[in-house]
Amino acid sequence: MNEKTMKIMQQEVDDYIQQFKTGYFSPLGQMARLTEEVGELAREVNHHYGEKAKKDSEQPKTVQEELGDVLFVTIIMANSLDIDLTEAFNRNMEKFNQRDRFRFERKDGMTEGDIQ
């Protein structure tokens, strides 16, 4: 399997965008596109796991495909704003592992009171 790091994915998306004269859209335009893609993801999740059946006239799509679209547009937005997504991810994981480590019931049974 050809696994890619986030850095490689960000470079690959940048290489793709750089071949067009338009380049990156404005942050507001990208936010609109990201919102559109998240809406399409929500629709697919609703079709697959919710009560809303897909219309016969609707194109078959998958949750995986829509998540891929959301990831692609997220990478585009990060690139245009010069954000390293690996760094952003690592910071978020550090935050969640500290702030939220006892937010939900843990499988190991540990609680905040167990910390000395």
Automatic annotation (TrEMBL):
Write down the superkingdom of origin: Bacteria
Q: Extract the CDD domains matched here.
A: NTP-PPase_BsYpjD
Recorded hits in InterPro entries, A to Z, give: MazG-like_dom, MazG-related_YpjD, YpjD/YvdC
One GO molecular function term?
A: hydrolase activity
- Is Hydrolase set as a keyword in this record? yes
Recorded hits in Gene3D superfamilies, A to Z, give: MazG-like
Q: Which residues form the NTP pyrophosphohydrolase MazG-like domain?
A: 27-103
UniProt entry keywords in alphabetical sequence: Hydrolase
Q: Give the protein's recorded name.
A: MazG nucleotide pyrophosphohydrolase
